[in-house]
Amino acid sequence: MGSILRSILPIRSSKQDEDDDEFNPEYSFAMEYTGPPVSYDIPRAVPVDVAYIPTASVVSTPFTSGNLSLPVIHPVIKREPKSISSEIEDTSLVSGLIVPDTPPEGEGSSASLGFSDSQENSQEFSMSSEGDGLDNYCHEIVELCNSSQQDENQNESHEEISSYDNRTQVVTFGEPESISMVESETDYSQSQTGVVVQERRHASSQVKKGLCHRCLKGNRFTSKEFCIVCDAKYCSKCVLRVMGSMPEGRKCISCIGYPIDESNRGHIGKCSKVLKQLLTDFQIKQVMDFEEACQINQLPYWLVIVNGKPLSLEEVVQLRSCLYPPQRLRPGSYWYDKLSGYWGKEGHKPSQIITPQLSLGGLIMENASNGNTKVKINNRVITKTELKMLKFVGINYKDCTDFWLGPDGSVLEEGQKQVKGNMWEKPGIKMVCGILSLPMPPKSFMSSEDETVNNGSKIMQKNIDIKPLTKILLVGQDQSGTSAIYKQAKTLYKIPFLENEREELKSLIQRNLYLYISILLEGLIKFEEEYSIQIRNKLVDQPSTSAAGGSIENIYSLSTKLKNFSDWLLEIVKSGNLGTVFPAATREYSGVVEELWKDKAFQAAYARRSEVGAFPIVADYFLPRAVEISSANYEPSDVDILYADGISSSNGLTSMEFSVPSSFTNTYMEVTEHNHPPLQRYELIRVNSSNLGDNCKWLSMFEDVDLILYCVDLTSYDEFYIDNNLILKNKMLESKSLFKTMVTHPRFKDKAFLLILNKFDLLENKIKTRPLTECEWFHDFNPFISNHTNNNNNSNNNNDSCVAQYGFQYVAAKFKRLFGELTGRKLYVTSVTGLEADSVDVALRYGGEVLRWVDEENKPKSSNNEWSSESVETSS
Ligand SMILES: Nc1nc2c(ncn2[C@@H]2O[C@H](COP(=O)(O)OP(=O)(O)OP(=O)(O)O)[C@@H](O)[C@H]2O)c(=O)[nH]1
Ligand SMILES: [Mg+2]
């Protein structure tokens, strides 16, 4: 247990605080970090392999900007029984986010917890029984460990608890022992695919009403915050201790990873008074964002039943992302009239009119709203209240009782073409609906001039989805440069980075800094080993050196303190917890970073960075400023933001709306006073391939996009990565594979694609030494380069540039051919250097042109634009 606590509670004693000379990696920031709650990608904060086994891939979409209408997609997370060690890791992760304070003075708590490497299993704890701070915190952690063990193995659990009980002779925690604050029960519910097991947690019923569930003080008038999972209430003194930095919103630490109590869904994202007193506006926003966006807090989609059929995840996504989604969607049974958009709770009159024509749920049943009027609208027997409205509109329901109601309000007799009247055009209808508590359609339904077509048995509404924006999807494999292009577009079209976006980027840059350091440290270890061998060989060859008492110093050896830091950092990176520890701990370690950067051994490794395999090029930009970046006062510049690898620490989906001067669509046309097209609004949605889920299953979310910008890193042809199945994959081939998936996706059948071949600047350098033939797909690349070189630098540069151009043309042609074979259509291609504003500007304008051309192409024979390989050249 000692080692358990040690891994959970790495604590620095005040003594250790004073003599800070030796870096001790066990001094986690957890106990000392008093900054704001940290911005973390939730799935990373609780690593999937440690804490959860998700049944579907994760698409976490904390929107970082824009009014993206797309929803947050979330998998079902089943909480699997965990091993004690995994729970501990889980807990320690969470504890990394906690801001537990030192034991309050004057409460008789004299905590003296310490450990040293040599005494791993024999720590001494001494606390007074009234300790209120650390001891209670420890108690909670111990409880957590115990409860997790119960999950796994009852018997083992008893053993562990009894050993803990023995320990209580030394450590006394000031909490009533008999009360377990949270109780769990298992809930079985039927889903489409089978039984879904969900663990439900609720606060202990033994705590008296009004009392804080942690300190057991207060009364019903004390302001409290509650846990959205178990409903336990905490006073303002306890809430941060119990909830830490709330990576899933307001949940006790032990409730993290559990679904919320559905009765609390209405409270999600709504901050309470207590939290407002404790946190800054920025912190509150982050917590609320986590609460709303994190996957486990999402609606359990299988509990939403429409027309008798439980919805699939995709259907819920569709429902929530449609133009007029149901308000306050909760688990329950609903009916939905696809034709009119009427929506209501099963057995009740309609409550809302949502977007019609959504393909979800089963067929509407006659008795869906429990009507008893014998009059049917779109096959549903309507209620008496609705009948009154029909009467008010003047529809004669005596002769005919079966009607069709279109989304625009037109009423037809079943099987007839003639429109009998229009529900929504009748003067006074709004008032009547108000009186009868019946829903009115959104305004745009009524004002749309859509053509209603009656095919005898079915009303089809054309252009029902009003598309206010032209949507552009920007997608590519990791490192393809999608976020660089997105950020560049933001700057180009004057969409400022909001304060929280800058904060996110700052966190990202600081976290990545530690990643770059760790990559170099790994290289350093290799260099040190190599150098040791050299020294040994030298000593063998020249024994006189050692005989003379001379020893050769290893120039790659770090001091003990830096070595400890190095081991600790590498361990964190290896365990995948970098995002959990940094940037929160940045301030803590900025001193060490400064020391490391000035260290000769580290500098020696930095000088050999080109030999360190995974060392990213962009690290060259950030690492020399390690001291500045790791300091608490660091503010990223615009260039830092552009160069940062990514856009937010969560790397979720991002979107922005922008409009550009009319020339956006007129780069290749003469702009005259008369041919200015109207100002067009665009929505740029950037998504990283990892956000598309396994086999790109979320692609259908983007079916309403007008143009897809598919981004490929031109320099990835000789780069590899190891996938989840430990298979070595060529990055260019992976890009090709994602491209194929996208262009053949049924929802993208007719979409326009613009291929962005990015990092052209880097290609120019790389292609000199690494031929394109390194990638098997490009095996026949054989550019003809003039041998007529005069020994002059200029001509060499021209040749390099020429080869890069050929390379680009070749890659473009490969993708074009592939696209042609798969779709029979033309692919538009452009080369881009994402870090250059002009280059991105031209590419996006070209996108505008493509849209216009595609439009024209779809018109009957209006243009004869030929997009041959020459067009590739023009476009670039
Ligand atoms: N030299 C050079 N670097 C680039 C270019 N485009 C992007 N980069 C860098 O390449 C790295 C990866 O780019 P990102 O924009 O993060 O691309 P991404 O990985 O597809 O996007 P995210 O998934 O959001 O991280 C970043 O460090 C960029 O600064 C380019 O055209 N030239
Ligand atoms: Mg990136």
TrEMBL record:
One of its GO terms (biological process) is adenylate cyclase-modulating G protein-coupled receptor signaling pathway. GO terms for cellular component: cytoplasm; heterotrimeric G-protein complex. Gene3D superfamilies: GI Alpha 1, domain 2-like, P-loop containing nucleotide triphosphate hydrolases. The keyword GTP-binding applies. Keywords: GTP-binding, Magnesium, Metal-binding, Nucleotide-binding, Transducer. GO terms for molecular function: G protein-coupled receptor binding; G-protein beta/gamma-subunit complex binding; GTP binding; GTPase activity; metal ion binding. Residues 109-129 have a biased composition (Polar residues). It comes from the Eukaryota. InterPro entries: Gprotein_alpha_su, GproteinA_insert, P-loop_NTPase, XLG_GTP-binding. GTP binds at N758, K759, F760, D761. It holds the Pfam family G-alpha. Mg(2+) binds at S483, S650. Residues 100-130, 857-876 are annotated as: Disordered. This is Extra-large guanine nucleotide-binding protein 1. It comes from Lactuca sativa. The lineage of its organism: Eukaryota, Viridiplantae, Streptophyta, Embryophyta, Tracheophyta.
